[in-house]
Amino acid sequence: MSETNLPATSQNPFKNPTYPQRTHVKERAHWQGVLAACEAKVAEAGRVLVASPNHPRRADLERLYAQMLGARDQVADKAKRLPLEAGGLYHEDKEKLEEGVAALARVEARWNEIKG
Asked: What is the pTM of this model?
């Protein structure tokens, strides 16, 4: 008997009733947009870093750029995982993604102060 021919009153034997259903799959485009915005900020910082090899605070800019890359990587990892998560794991990963976005914003603010 195929999955589509099951009577409405019986449980579907092809799905585990204790496994939470993935309900966030349609959010993939949103999270990819968040990631794209983060990548654009990091790319712009990289262009500035390359264009200013003699900046008086070059070491500080390099350190902040490395922090931007770390925050971007955190966002990228969670943006990839979020649409497939279910239950508590979704909420935990969403919080970590939001923390990555906030960290990138803080580092970007310091970057702008130093860059001048």
From this structure: 0.80
